[in-house]
């Protein structure tokens, strides 16, 4: 994405003044670079400097909170309470991570988060793409009404408590199924995949059919491989959504500790320190916590370490999919 | 991306061009091919408007087998929960068992929520929701457009890509993490509140600001934190729309002596106007739905008067304190307003001759 239009020759002289049209052959000569792009005029130097400075400052602002948290998490817990740590640990120590890894709840929650994310991504991609394939077939008789039913759910929501009652009445409270069954299809992703599949030339699927492939085979062996970029983006969106979710744990699965997720554990920690902070200054952040292995740490350092554990997996993945974001977002933003 | 001039929304949001699987042929003959394709498809679509007959059903049983179970699934999980709306007309006590064993009270809960003591609280909750959402929307849109314009001026592509990746980063952090980061950033300098540190060392304030215990700052905090999280992400669509503007327009403007800012104002901004309008319209439909996590995590008792939004009210007062009936009434209110807003937005989009949402 984001190829600047500068380098490419323009094909049609659409909006040019008449004079230009008359001298068309001249324009057609070797691509004429525009002067302002090439010469370093004072205006350009000043603007580029200011712009670069501003954007760098913005990038720093985006990165600082996370780097700060990273530094605190790598700092000695007791020392971190003194505050004033920037983006570099003052007293380097891996103790906080040791404590985190020794906390059974966090350890378990991490694996539950991973398991949940993997299951949700697998089931969601499977079912959403299957339905998207059916809805992308132009001859499919119920294409319109079914699409409508799904698109409306982007805006219609029965509400938190009715949804909770449904899960309860289905007997899925405090089970792993409450994580993945309610989210095997999202309307937004369905539209993204369907629109992408529609763009695959009919000849491809037709030839598959002539060779004797049924619908399932055409979907799984012909269309799915062609959709890899779209599947990658949708998969990322789903993974991020599932990994970052905490409300499903709070609503449906907070009764069973083994079903707890990393985000939910972090949220509990955050809300306890928020309440303590509002009531009694910073006492909560200063009290020493003894980890199960006997190491000393403090809530602020512990929270930083857990934040990093919860943030890093996603942050390692998304840059590789950056080039696909544009198409994924644009298709889904409007019905299409 | 193709270079087709932006003349309607479809190209402005890149619907068609973006999804085309990459082909290496030249842009002109691709365009021609695509036009031919489109014409063919249109004809086909007109000819074979699917008719529901038993033969068709039998012939398409594989497709039906793929779609119908999932349709039933969606109806079960998205529409069937509406039976829970019955609670709005009941004096719901979880101890009494299911919704068939409850006492029916008619519209009492509605009266209860919209008038009296609860009414005052609920009106404040609605105002908070609207205030936080609108502020977030305005700040977010203006910020994203400005950043897209500035990023567009960066000609060093690797640098631009790195910048984009960095600004996308917060989008991928969960709201729990963002709230945690924000609570640290906004705290007192002694507990690592670097915003206060910065303000004080710049001499803007003498005393540290009590961001999270002073109600009047809260809307700004929500808008600012959302801006931090989504700024880079929101530029994606605007940047794509800018790339789709015909470069000939810029060349013509240059010939006419337009400078950098004239070009931004008179070509780039009008060029992305369809995108801006559509995104604003879409977001209007979500206005009561957004902003859940931040007020829930950061809003403590001291600032509840400015922090509590509808969703927080439903979760805290309804779900956690067991006032199911009032919470469901609030939820119904939210859903109905959302549907009205989406309908209105849809009409507005139609009026503006844009792609519709529903």
Walkthrough of the structure:
- The complex is a heterodimer of chains A (336) and B (358).
- With 336 residues, chain A is mainly alpha-helical.
- Chain A is built from 19 helices and 2 strands.
- Chain A has a two-stranded antiparallel sheet with strand order 1-2.
- In chain A, a hairpin with a 5-residue loop joins strand 1 and strand 2.
- The N terminus of chain A is likely disordered.
- Chain B has a two-stranded antiparallel sheet with strand order 1-2.
- Chain B has 2 domains: 62 residues; 245 residues, MetI-like fold (Orthogonal Bundle).
- The two termini of chain B are 26 Å apart.
- Chain B has 18 helices and 2 strands.
- At the A-B interface, helix 3, helix 4, helix 7, helix 8 and helix 9 of A face helix 2, helix 3, helix 5, helix 7 and helix 8 of B.
Order of helices and strands of chain A: HHHHHHHHHHHHHHHHHEEHH
Supply the CATH superfamily name of one domain in chain A.
MetI-like
Rg result of chain B? 26 Å
Number of domains of chain B: 2
Query: What's the order of the H and E elements of chain B?
Result: HHHHHEEHHHHHHHHHHHHH
Please count the helical segments of chain B. Answer: 18
Low-confidence spans of chain A: pLDDT under 50, at least 5 residues? 1-28, 278-286
Strand order of the largest sheet of chain A: 1-2
DSSP strand count of chain A: 2
Gyration radius of chain A, to the nearest Å? 27 Å
The biggest beta sheet of chain B is recorded as: 2 strands, antiparallel
Detail the poorly predicted runs of chain B: 1-26
Q: Whole-number average pLDDT of chain A? A: 80
Multimer state: heterodimer
CATH domain class of one domain in chain A: Mainly Alpha
Secondary structural class of chain B: mainly alpha
CATH architecture of the largest domain in chain B: Orthogonal Bundle
């Amino acid at each position: 994405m984001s190829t600047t239009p500068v380098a490419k020759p323009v094909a049609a002289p659409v909006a040019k003044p008449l004079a230009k049209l008359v001298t068309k052959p001249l324009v057609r000569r070797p691509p004429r670079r525009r002067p302002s792009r090439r010469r370093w005029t004072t205006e350009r130097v000043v603007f580029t400097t200011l712009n670069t400075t501003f954007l760098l400052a913005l990038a720093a602002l985006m990165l600082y909170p996370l780097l700060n948290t990273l530094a605190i998490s790598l700092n000695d817990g007791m020392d971190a309470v003194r505050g004033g740590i920037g983006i570099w640990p003052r007293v380097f120590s891996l103790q906080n991570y040791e404590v985190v890894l020794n906390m059974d709840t966090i350890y378990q929650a991490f694996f539950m988060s991973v398991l949940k994310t993997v299951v949700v991504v697998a089931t969601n991609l499977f079912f959403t793409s299957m339905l998207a394939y059916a809805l992308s077939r132009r001859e499919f008789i119920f294409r319109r009404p079914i699409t409508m039913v799904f698109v409306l759910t982007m805006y219609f929501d029965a509400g938190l408590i009715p949804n909770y009652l449904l899960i309860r009445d289905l007997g899925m409270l405090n089970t792993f199924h409450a994580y993945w069954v309610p989210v095997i299809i999202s309307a937004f992703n369905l539209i993204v995949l369907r629109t992408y599949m529609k763009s695959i030339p009919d000849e491809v699927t037709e030839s598959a059919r002539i060779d004797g492939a049924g619908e399932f085979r055409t979907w799984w062996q012909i269309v799915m491989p062609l959709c890899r970029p779209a599947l990658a983006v949708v998969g990322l969106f789903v993974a991020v959504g599932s990994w970052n979710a905490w409300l499903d744990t709070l609503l449906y699965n907070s009764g069973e500790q083994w079903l707890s997720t990393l985000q939910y554990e972090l949220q509990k920690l955050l809300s306890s320190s928020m309440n303590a902070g509002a009531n009694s200054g910073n006492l909560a952040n200063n009290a020493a916590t003894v980890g199960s292995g006997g190491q000393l740490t403090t809530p602020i350092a512990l929270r930083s370490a857990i934040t990093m554990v919860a943030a890093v997996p996603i942050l390692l993945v998304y840059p590789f999919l950056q080039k696909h974001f544009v198409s994924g977002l644009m298709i889904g933003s409007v019905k299409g | 991306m193709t270079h087709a001039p932006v003349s309607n929304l479809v190209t402005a949001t890149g619907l068609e061009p973006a999804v085309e699987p990459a082909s290496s042929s030249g842009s002109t003959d691709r365009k021609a091919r695509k036009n031919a394709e489109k014409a063919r498809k249109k004809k086909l679509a007109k000819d074979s408007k699917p008719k529901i007959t038993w033969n068709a059903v039998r012939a398409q049983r594989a497709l039906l087998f793929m779609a119908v179970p999932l349709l039933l699934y969606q109806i079960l999980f998205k529409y069937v929960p509406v039976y829970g709306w019955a609670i709005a007309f009941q004096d719901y006590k979880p101890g009494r068992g299911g919704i068939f064993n409850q006492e029916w009270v008619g519209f009492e809960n509605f009266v209860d929520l919209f008038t009296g003591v609860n009414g005052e609280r609920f009106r404040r909750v609605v105002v908070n929701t609207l205030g936080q959402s609108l502020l977030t929307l305005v700040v977010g849109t203006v910020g994203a457009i400005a950043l897209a314009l500035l990023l567009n001026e960066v000609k060093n592509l690797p640098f631009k890509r790195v910048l984009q990746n960095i600004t996308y980063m917060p989008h991928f952090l969960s709201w729990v993490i963002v709230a945690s980061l924000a609570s640290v950033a906004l705290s007192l300098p002694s507990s690592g509140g670097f915003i206060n540190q910065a303000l004080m060392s710049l001499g803007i304030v003498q005393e540290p600001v009590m961001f999270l215990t002073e109600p009047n700052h809260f809307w700004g905090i929500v808008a600012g934190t959302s801006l931090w999280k989504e700024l880079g992400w929101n530029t994606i669509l605007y940047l794509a729309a800018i790339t789709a503007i015909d470069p000939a327009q810029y060349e013509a403007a240059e010939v006419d002596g337009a400078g950098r800012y004239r070009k931004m104002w008179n070509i780039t901004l009008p060029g992305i106007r369809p995108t801006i309008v559509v995104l604003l319209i879409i977001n209007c439909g979500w206005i009561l739905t957004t902003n859940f996590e931040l007020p829930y995590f950061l809003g403590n008792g001291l600032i509840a008067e400015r922090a509590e939004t509808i969703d927080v009210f439903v979760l805290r007062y309804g779900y956690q304190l067991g006032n199911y009936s009032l919470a469901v009434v609030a939820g119904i209110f939210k859903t109905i307003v959302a549907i009205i807003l989406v309908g209105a937005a849809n009409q507005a989009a139609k009026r503006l001759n844009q792609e519709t949402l529903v």
